[in-house]
């Protein structure tokens, strides 16, 4: 203690920052307190593919896809009046089965194939009342062609496939990279899709 005080007197003429540093070096407990008060390390950067924002289907409030960083994502373009519309039930079951392991199903209603004519509220009501959909869904947008959203344009380039019809599926790994692309004919309970989802979920 006396040595610390003598050091403090000698350091009295030093600038405040240097004086504080000298005290921390001489006092281990003060160092520990300073470290515990330090701000936490910054979270990993959001992958480039997820740096997009879409209005939420139910209320059109902006939702950043970056909130799903570190999750496994199954991205699906949906429609209410399509032969594949019953896949909503399988997608909800898939979401419920794997959500605790980190899977998030994301629905993107689109009228690109002339089978989603309703407005956002009508689509939201249909999905909830008919199939009990609880996974995140976004406002109606375009998923193919020149009018496709930047997100879907990226998915098409990275996967080498663009949606040919409703209920095309893209699998995105925890690292934000496209891990698979599946046509409308691949149902949510398809063995190949399930195997790929489980593989993506097991990756760290």
Write a structural description.
By secondary structure, this protein is α+β, with helices and mostly antiparallel strands. The protein has two domains: 2-37, no CATH class; 48-202, Glutaredoxin, CATH 3.40.30. It contains seven helices and six strands, in the order αααβββαβααββα. It has helices spanning 2-10, 16-26, 28-37, 87-98, 120-131, 150-159, 191-202; strands at residues 53-55, 62-64, 72-78, 103-109, 169-172, 178-182. It has a four-stranded mixed sheet, with helices on both faces. Strand 5 (169-172) and strand 6 form a beta hairpin. Helix 2 (16-26) crosses helix 3 (28-37). It is globular and about 40 Å long. It starts with a helix and ends with a helix. Residues 1-25 and 30-43 have low confidence and may be disordered.
How far is it from the N-terminal to the C-terminal residue, by CA?
A: 49 Å
Q: What share of residues are in beta strands?
A: 5-15%
Structural class: alpha+beta
The oligomerization state is: single chain
Shape: globular
CATH-derived architecture of the largest domain: 3-Layer(aba) Sandwich
How many DSSP-defined strands?
6
């Amino acid at each position: 203690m006396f040595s610390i005080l003598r050091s403090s007197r000698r350091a009295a003429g030093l600038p405040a920052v240097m004086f504080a540093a000298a005290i921390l070096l001489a006092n281990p407990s003060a160092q520990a307190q300073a470290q515990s008060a330090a701000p936490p390390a910054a979270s990993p950067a959001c992958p480039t593919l997820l740096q997009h924002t879409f209005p939420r289907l139910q209320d059109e409030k902006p939702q950043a896809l970056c909130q799903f960083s570190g999750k496994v994502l199954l991205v699906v373009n949906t429609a209410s009046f399509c032969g594949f519309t019953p896949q909503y039930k399988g997608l909800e079951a898939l979401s419920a089965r794997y959500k605790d392991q980190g899977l998030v199903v994301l629905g993107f209603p689109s009228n690109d194939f002339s089978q989603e004519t309703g407005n956002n509220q009508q689509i939201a009501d249909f999905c909830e009342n008919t199939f009990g959909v609880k996974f995140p869904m976004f406002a109606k947008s375009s998923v193919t062609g020149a009018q496709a959203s930047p997100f879907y344009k990226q998915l098409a380039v990275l996967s080498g496939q663009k949606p040919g019809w409703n209920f095309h599926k893209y699998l995105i790994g925890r690292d934000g990279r496209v891990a698979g692309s599946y046509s409308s004919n691949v149902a949510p309970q398809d063995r190949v899709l399930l195997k790929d989802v489980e593989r993506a979920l097991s990756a760290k």
